[in-house]
Amino acid sequence: MTLTTTRPSSTAAPVARKPAPSRRARVPYAFLAPGLLLFTLFLAAPIVYAGYLSLRKVKVSGLGLGSKSRTEVWAGLSNYTRSMTDPEWLPSVYRILGYGLVVVPAMLGLALLMALLLDAGRTRPGFSGFARISIFLPYAVPAVVASLLWGFLYLPRVSPFVYTLDKLGIHAPELLSSSWVLYAVANVAVWGGTGFNMIVLYTALRAVPTSLYESARIDGASELAIAWRIKIPIVLPSLIMTFVFSMIATLQVFAEPMTLKPLSNTISFTWTPLMKVYRDAFVRNDIYAAAATSVVIAVATFVLSFGFLKLVGRRAFNQEES
Amino acid sequence: MYKKLAPVLATLTAAALFTSACSSSGDKSDDAATSTEKVALTYWSWAPNMDKVVEGWNSTHPNIQVTVNKQDGGDPAVTKLLTAIKAGSGAPDVMQAEYQKIPTLVSADALADIGKEAGSLKDKFPAAAWNAVTLGSEAVYGVPQDSGPLMFFYRSDIFEKNKLQAPKTWDDYAAAAATIHKANPKQYLGTFSASDAGLFAGLAQQAGASWWGVNGDSWTVNINDAATQKVAGYWGGLVEKGVIDNKPMYTPEWNAALNDGTQVGWVSAVWAPGVLEGSAKDTKGKWKAAAMPQWDAAGPATGNWGGSATSVTSQSKHPKQAAEFVAWLNSDPAALKLLAGTANVYPAANDATSVLTTPPAFFADQADFYTIAAEAAKVTKPFTYGPNVNVAYSAFNDAFGKAAESKKAAAFTESLVTMQKATVDDMKNSGFTVAG
Fold it and tell me: What residues form the membrane-spanning segments (chain A) (predicted)?
């Protein structure tokens, strides 16, 4: 069975053979140096710095108005306890869990459906090219711009949809009211993300040789059965990958609610965990609490994505191989 | 050959990357050496046409050339400045700073004391404005530029149609709101905006509140005091009755409502004409300005919404020249004329009344516009801002957002408890001494 997983081949190029002189042994490190340097400068160092900041705090003396009245001191874990016991923290976590339950299935479901439809129409190339691009296009729109566009469509007085529905005598719900706002934000993310996931899944489908489908068809399988029994199992690794990406994006949702925030009463400064980080750092000017929350979010993202990969890794990949 | 060169190349690439990564910062602002006489200053401001005002200075002061760097607004500019202060470089020499941000900036050691250069200007400004730049101390952290006394703006045609007068008291305002909404259920006299903490602070100021205070060596926080409770309860009551709207201001929705005659009044400040001109251009000529509705008609008072000073930052290498420019900008008659006429600000200086003779274009028919504004500026109540205004304001947004959505008056007064607690907790956590 053909499989399109890319596993890291651990011993790809035997660079340093045993008898090589010591000078040549250093060559790979020289090659690695630019990468390592960039990694250190732009990834490792900021992470370490954030970890350091999360253990510090500012101590003000007196009224805090003189020029030397602020000193930075060690804070122990107090920033962490303060962040985690903030009454707004848990609601924001629950909120993105609900948000994820809406966004991820809707986005991946739509992406899979569209990829399968495009793939089914492989024989008519003209239309599928156009369809593919138009489905992908929203992904090219920056999240902030997309949120502004949708914001205009949500506000009753400026929305052409509400206007049309109103003329038809239908009372449209207020999409930025507390009962709808989660879906309103989720919709922007689904609109923007479906295209990307569709392309990933579609590319995986394209890698499958048509002979497979032909033989299934000869065996009497319907298009639906082919999709369900052959195509979906084959793109499962891609589905898992897109799921992990979507999960990480959910944990880090920020631009959409932040842009919609000024338009409504229902999106608070701490609507999502990352918005709380932003509020602490740039509104409250407390980068120490923000660093602590960031570290918690980073660890949670790490644990969730690798935990999930470990969980499904064996089932999804190994089963197919054996 | 290639194999031998490889490590060298790799190291060179790495070195190049490293230097380019590091050299991108700190390559400006120290070009004007102190030995030469010519000095270049940068000035962050978000007032419109400020570059044209500054031209008036540059043409007469060849040795102190000021470049305006246009900012998005008060909040982003402060965020940028605080980041630059933390980083140790990147701050401008001169900075527009809203009054409510000055304690925060002083507390972060971002502003220079220009008492020596500008201290003599004290008598040229109203006491409340001068107090905002000194914080009641001997130091001077800027020169007041503009002020924003609260005023009331209304659609005179709608008021006439409903046989209403401009409200003298808040009771009148409530009655007018009810009448207008009853006559046309789509129309509102105003909205309670949970995204504009500055306006709410101004309304509380009018009622006699002062959210922060200094008592010896400790701060006091009085957000949940009787005056603010009165204001919160009043607006909560109007929202609960449904006679005013509960949606935030400064949204496309609100702009459309002002323009199509759904919002027929606005409690705002002296700078409102500029906003109305942009948002409600189809209603030109139908608006009128009036003094604020009062709690006590016998003792008129008002609050402030907006207004800013011009400060010299602590990173400036030429604080003396910068202070000279700041003093000129906000007190020289020629500069005041430019500020009022070109940058459309309402100068804080006492002399400003002489340059403000014609009403703003959007209120062209109201000859007494600036007389009303000057009266308002005179009765502005004192108000002290604290070192963590942003914390209080963001707590306001979240708590009052929920309250406005729930449309319950009780939730409005309850929100003040949340605001007070968030503000005090934050100050205590930073180590400020907070009394009470």
Answer: 27-52, 96-118, 130-155, 180-205, 234-255, 287-309
Q: Kindly determine whether residue A31 and residue B6, on different chains, have CB atoms separated by under 8 Å.
A: yes
Nearest neighbour of B11 by CB, restricted to A30, A152, A262: A30
Question: Is the same domain home to B187 and B132?
Answer: no
Contact B260 A157 (CB under 8 A): yes
DSSP state of B360: P
Contact across the interface for A64 and B107, Cβ inside 8 Å:
yes
Provide the domain limits for residue B287: 150-303+366-435
CA closest to B196 among chain A residues? A262
Q: What is the DSSP string of A239-284?
A: HHHHHHHHHHHHHT--HHHHHHGGG-SS--TTSSHHHHHHIIIIIS
Residues B312, B406: one domain?
Answer: no
Q: What is the pLDDT along chain B (436 residues), one digit of tens a residue?
A: 344 444 444 444 444 444 444 433 333 344 444 445 789 999 999 988 899 999 999 999 999 999 999 998 888 899 899 889 988 899 999 999 999 999 989 988 899 999 998 889 999 998 888 988 998 788 899 999 999 999 999 999 999 999 999 999 999 999 999 999 999 999 999 999 999 999 999 999 999 999 998 888 889 999 999 999 999 999 999 999 999 999 999 999 999 999 999 999 999 999 999 889 889 999 999 999 999 999 999 999 999 998 999 999 999 999 999 999 999 999 999 999 989 888 888 999 988 888 888 888 899 899 999 999 988 988 888 899 999 998 999 999 999 999 999 999 999 999 999 999 999 999 998 888 898 6
Instruction: Using DSSP bridges, classify how beta strands B212-215 and B94-98 pair: parallel, antiparallel or unpaired.
Output: unpaired
For the whole prediction, is pTM greater than 0.80? yes
Q: How far apart are CA A232 and CA A315, in angstroms?
A: 15
Among B13, B256, B426, the residue with its CB nearest the CB of A34 is: B13
Residues B247 and B396 in one domain: yes
Q: Name the CATH superfamily, with its identifier, for domain A86-321.
A: MetI-like (1.10.3720.10)
Chain B interface test: which of A157, A269, A287 (most B C-beta within 10 Å): A157
Inter-chain CB proximity B10 and A30 less than 8 Å: yes
CB pairs under 8 A between A and B: 130
> How many angstroms away from the CA of A301 is the closest CA of chain B?
27
Location of structure tokens 């399109």: A4
**B218-221 and B265-269 beta bridge pairing:** unpaired
Q: In whole angstroms, what is the distance from residue B323 CA to residue B331 CA? A: 12
